[in-house]
Structures are given as structure tokens and as C-alpha cells.
Design brief:
Layout lengths: L2 H36 L3 H29 L1 H19 L5 H19 L2 H8 L2 H33 L2 H19 L15 H20 L3 H21 L15 H31 L4 H8 L1 H19 L2 H19 L8 H28 L6 H31 L9 H27 L5 H8 L4
Helix pairs in contact: 1-2, 1-4, 1-5, 1-6, 1-7, 2-3, 2-4, 2-8, 2-15, 3-4, 3-7, 5-6, 5-15, 6-12, 6-14, 8-9, 8-15, 10-11, 10-14, 10-15, 10-16, 12-13, 12-14, 13-14, 13-16, 15-16
């Protein structure tokens, strides 16, 4: 491929990677005015994001498989176009129901984008260049996370919440124009059949599982989670016995692929609750305003954006699993540091921990993706990319479910107030300690590289 074609691919990847995290993080700022306009309560407002994540999770793997059959560039392009159109229509929503439907369309279009994003990069860039390209691509996503609350707050305050969706339209048009300049197509599964039954079983299982996570700590939620897990077990059993599965489950026999996806799940589950808990801590316990709290919380994504390209380049020069392990180690230290938060804690500790976490997530993300994409054959790039994106969504949902579950166990339904700050801080400390422990396990998984399971346990027990 020509250098210019690779540059176009990288430009498209960065712009696409920016779009969906931006609208996801910026819409959180706009929830109060949306609720006031449509008369929605907190539960309904929560579903504006939940239904997007649910749709994304359900469609990622099936659309990734369709892309393997009919062409990744084609499905990716359809995704960008649909995302742009749905964003435009969302800006004209006349009811909460209309907005919810359009969020479903945004979720489906995001599945077309993220189910193929890493696969296209892996197809175009060889091993010695892939890490750098993935690092730059991930930087686009981190910039979306960083600028979402900042620009979202400004747009909502001065132009109203609808302006957030309008903001996506020109970006979507520019990305569409760029992808049309991208040469080539990748369809290693061309001519194969699409497994509709497996897709339905997978979609139904994920729907039940994610809805169950959203219902915790109610008993009903646990039953739904169990049903969802049974459904996923059934799906894996079915897919291992048909000729053209929607997901080639034999891919999980690849130890490196499986272990590093598990590490990715741990990373994503630990990352989302950090902003949620610290936002409450800074605004309630420390009495800071939203703008000041947002500036402090911005430290983490800024560090992620700065160090992601460096992490990608490092993973091209040395074993990427070592860089990912270092990143997860820094994440472990950052989370462990947050367990010392108290009512009188100096904000310097929060900033230092956020710096460590930002560097940690940056050093982990693109090298770990590099390991995952490099561990499979090119014909499985679509499946690998879609699986990793599904892991991201499930990790985010699981992390939030755990944090909310801990809050409910410690505080119940009590509103955060000076009388129960100590209970809130204790629940936050428990969550950070729990995620620090899982991050440590993620570090061990990341450092496992291509070694045997015996070596993995030796590392865990410090026998080496």
C-alpha cells in the first residue's frame, strides 16, 4: 500500500475514534437539560447512555462478521454515514422516545465503526508499524473522552443540548469524505454464509446480561445475569459446531488472544468508575463546582492522549506485552493510591493518582491491542476487532455495576450529604481497592506474553 493510503487510513481512524467517545462523554453533561425539556426522571435519563451501549454490544460481533464477508471498508463507511445522519436527526428530537430510537441507531452505527476500526489498521500496517498506528488511533478516542465534557458543557450552556449532536455532523461528513479516498477493500470471508441464528442467540444473551447489570443490586438483576451467562455458554457451544459461525470461537484457543482480552476487560472495568466516583467525591466532599472538578478529572485523559502515541511506538520496538504490563502496573498503583482518599486529603494526591492512571491506561491500551491483533491470522481481524470492542463495552458496564453495587451495599438509597460522607468515602475506598486488585491480576495477564500457564502462575507467586 502507498504511504498516502496509510495516511488516509490513519486520518479516518483518528476521526472515527474521536466521534463516538465524544458524543458519549458530552451527552452526560446535557442530561439535566434534556430531563427538564422532556420531563424525564433519573432512571429514564440513565437509559439514554445505557441503550446506546446495549445496542453497541449486541451488534458489534454480527456486524464485524458481515464486514468480513462483504468488506470492512464498506461496512465501516455505512457506519460513518449512519452515525452522521442519526446525529443530525437526534438534534431535532421532539420527544424522549425519538431520542432513544436515534441513540439505538447511533449504537448500531458505532458497532459498524468500532467493529472494523482496528481490523482496517491491522490490515494496512505491518507488524513494525502497527503499534504506532494503533497508538495514534487510540489517541483520537482519548481526545474524544477529554473534550467531550469540556466542549459538551460549553455547547450545552450557550447553544443548548441539541448543539452536541449538530457538532458531530460536520465531523461525520469530513470522515466520510476521507474514507472515500481510502483505497482497497478487505473481505477475507467473502462468499461465506452469515450465521443468523447464532447472532440472535448472542444478541439476546448480551441484552439479558447487560440489562441485568443495570438492575443490580436487585435480586432480579442477578437472575438476569445468570440467564445471560447461560445464553453465552449456549452460544459458544453452538458456534463451535457449525461451519460458518458468526464468531469463530476457536479463536479463544489462542492463549495470547484470550489472556489479553481478559486483561482488556479488567482495564475497561476499572477505568469507567474512576471518573464517576471522583466526580462525586470532588463535588460533594470537597465542595468543588462542576467546572473545577472537570479540570482536575481532565488530567487523566490528557495524560492518556500524550502517552498513547509513545506507547504505540514502544510496542513496535520491544515486546508489546511488556509495555502493556507496565501500563497495567501504573494503573494498579494509581488505583491503590486512591484508596487513601479521605475528607481532608490533599488534592495533590488525586492529581498524582490521575497522572499515574492516565499514563497506565495509555501504556496498556494500544500495546495490548497490538498483541491481540498480532496474535490472529488476517482472516480473523474482523472477529478480533469486534471481540475486543465487545469486551470494552462489557467491561465498562461491569465496572459501573460493581461501583454502584458497592455504594448500595454501604450506603443503601441514602443521598450523599455531610452526615454520610464517611460512608461514601468508605464505599469509594472499597471500590478502588477492588479494582486495584483486579488491575494487578491484569498486569500478570499482560506480562504473560506467549508463555505457558505454568509460567503465568510462577509470575503470580513471585517464583521467578
Amino acid at each position: 500500500m502507498s504511504i498516502s493510503n496509510k495516511n488516509y487510513a490513519l486520518l479516518v481512524a483518528v476521526m472515527a475514534a474521536f466521534l463516538t467517545p465524544f458524543v458519549g462523554s458530552s451527552i452526560n453533561i446535557a442530561l439535566p437539560p434534556i430531563g427538564m425539556e422532556f420531563g424525564a426522571d433519573a432512571v429514564l435519563l440513565g437509559w439514554i447512555n445505557t441503550i446506546y451501549l446495549l445496542t453497541l454490544a449486541v451488534f458489534l460481533i454480527p456486524l464485524g462478521r458481515i464486514a468480513d464477508i462483504h468488506g470492512r471498508k464498506r461496512i465501516f463507511t455505512y457506519g460513518i454515514i449512519l452515525f452522521t445522519i442519526s446525529s443530525l436527526l437526534a438534534a431535532f428530537s421532539s420527544s424522549l422516545e425519538m431520542l432513544m430510537v436515534l441513540r439505538v441507531l447511533q449504537g448500531a452505527s458505532s458497532a459498524m465503526i468500532f467493529g472494523n476500526l482496528f481490523a482496517i489498521i491491522a490490515s494496512l500496517f505491518p507488524d513494525g508499524e502497527r503499534g504506532k498506528a494503533l497508538g495514534i488511533t487510540v489517541t483520537g478516542a482519548f481526545m474524544g473522552l477529554f473534550l467531550g465534557p469540556v466542549l459538551g458543557g460549553i455547547l450545552t450552556q450557550y447553544l443548548g443540548w441539541r448543539s452536541i449532536f449538530f457538532f458531530n455532523v460536520p465531523l461525520g461528513i469530513l470522515t466520510t469524505l476521507a474514507v472515500f479516498r481510502l483505497k482497497g477493500e478487505w473481505a477475507e470471508g467473502s462468499g461465506e454464509k452469515f450465521d443468523l441464528v447464532g447472532s440472535v442467540v448472542l444478541g439476546g444473551s448480551l441484552t439479558v446480561l447487560i440489562y441485568g447489570l443495570a438492575q443490580l443490586p436487585e435480586n432480579f438483576g442477578y437472575y438476569l445475569i445468570l440467564m445471560g451467562l447461560i445464553g453465552l455458554g449456549t452460544f459458544f457451544y453452538m458456534e463451535g459446531r457449525i461451519k460458518s459461525p458468526v464468531l469463530d470461537v476457536k479463536i479463544f484457543k489462542n492463549r495470547s488472544f484470550t489472556l489479553h482480552n481478559l486483561a482488556a476487560f479488567i482495564s475497561y472495568s476499572a477505568g469507567v468508575p474512576i471518573v464517576f466516583l471522583l466526580s462525586l467525591y470532588l463535588q460533594f466532599v470537597k465542595g468543588m463546582g462542576p467546572q473545577s472538578a472537570g479540570l482536575i478529572l481532565a488530567v487523566q485523559p490528557v495524560m492518556m492522549a500524550i502517552f498513547s502515541p509513545l506507547a504505540g511506538m514502544l510496542s513496535d520496538k520491544i515486546e508489546p506485552y511488556r509495555v502493556a504490563g507496565l501500563g497495567m502496573g501504573l494503573t494498579t498503583l494509581g488505583l491503590a493510591g486512591l484508596t487513601f482518599l479521605g475528607e481532608d486529603t490533599n488534592l495533590g494526591l488525586v492529581v498524582v493518582c490521575l497522572v499515574a492512571l492516565g499514563m497506565g491506561f495509555a501504556l496498556f491500551s494500544s500495546p495490548n491491542t497490538n498483541v491481540i491483533m498480532g496474535s490472529v491470522e488476517s482472516r480473523l481481524y474482523g472477529a478480533a476487532s469486534a471481540t475486543l470492542s465487545s469486551i470494552r463495552v462489557l467491561g465498562q458496564m461491569s465496572g459501573m455495576a460493581v461501583a454502584i453495587l458497592v455504594l448500595n451495599i454501604v450506603m443503601g438509597s441514602a443521598i450523599i450529604s455531610p452526615e454520610n460522607y464517611s460512608s461514601f468515602i468508605y464505599s469509594s475506598q472499597l471500590s478502588f481497592a477492588l479494582f486495584a486488585g483486579t488491575a494487578f491480576i491484569g498486569m500478570i495477564l499482560s506480562l504473560s506474553g506467549k508463555k505457558s500457564v505454568d509460567d503465568l502462575f510462577k509470575k503470580l507467586l513471585f517464583c521467578e
